[in-house]
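Show me a record, fold above all:
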Amino acid sequence: MSLLLGCIADDFTGATDLASMLVKHGMTTVQVIGVPNGALPEADAVVIALKSRTIPAGDAVAQSLAAAEALLAAGARQLLFKYCSTFDSTDEGNIGPVADALLKRLGAGFALACPAFPANGRSIYQGHLFAGSHLLSESGMENHPLTPMRDPNLVRVLGRQTEGSVGLVPFAVVERGAGAIRDAMTRLAEGGRRYGIIDAVTDAHLLAIGEAAAKHPLITGGSGIAMGLPANFRAAGLLPERPDAAVLPAPQGMCAVVAGSCSRATLGQIGFARDHVPVLELDALALPDAAALAAQALEWVQGKLSADRPVVIAASAPPDKVAALQARLGRDAAGVLVEDAMAAVAAGLVARGVGRLVVAGGETSGAVVSRLGVQQLRIGAEIDPGVPWTFAAPTGIHLALKSGNFGGRDFFLKAFEHG
């Protein structure tokens, strides 16, 4: 088995989301945690999960280039830079600077940019990103504690981050299919554009965009853009049919959820779970000490763990409480407090027999897998769009790493019906 697609993701849940998409479309996929030190595992696709979304842009570029070198050395025929379907970033980056560096490394002059994921309500029309029926800037993402998104026009947003210029392949062109999209991207590149934002409001659009980009050295976007890529390798005779791509070992052990995300979706999932399973909501503002919060959670969980239903431990909070905690501790320190607390909780739960663990939030997921010593994730079946179960090596536990924005209101219960 040779490596076909090499992927670099800027957070851990996004990496899992992407890997799930590839497995769903018939590619065996392994997620590697952090820049690998040695040889990559055998798979059709390898996703290297970084925690680079909100770090300084120079550090994000360095880590992404190191990941690219590992993938290219393993023979990857195409690279995909995956970021959030809500284009989480600031005017300083990190999407633009990382994409610029990858293009330069590959000797390429143009890449598409398409974070659309219609199954989760993310669509792009006339260059504007929508979350459901709302413009991104009116979706709640304008209140994100780390990457507030207040401009829905991706041509403008990416244009402020890159050294190059940004064009648009509009809806009317995308509707005409892969050939028209390919021609439009060629015109943008020949006209000196470094990137093209591609409109997409349906899965059919994403499949056409993927087909149009079959020969692109670099693709950038959300996980949705990956749905059209396996067919390109299959058409080239490089990818056989793989009906067992999502098979994992049987799950064992107790069930639990830890949540650090403050997104509307996660807050709604916590509220739904509260009426069905034991839920503990930690208050980092009242007790701003990671070790103390973890001790409180692990004391509370005694006698509540079960193999049949989860317990939920959350440090999530609405925007006003997040703002108050950041005002008290500083933005970065407030984030680290929650991440450290939830990582310690997760480690304590695993030590108490939890073998199936859902983690909500990208930053929280990064902290948890680091604390647990997870090095690789084998990707299994999807629970909800963008969120699969995975098997974590070398721990032997099953993990579902959920982007804060993903999943239906019943996700924390539904996950264990699939596990």
Q: What stands out?
A: The first strand starts at residue 5 and ends at 9. The CA atoms of residues 249 and 391 lie 7 Å apart. Residues 5-235 form a domain with the Rossmann fold fold (CATH 3.40.50.10840). Residues 331-351 form the longest helix (21 residues).
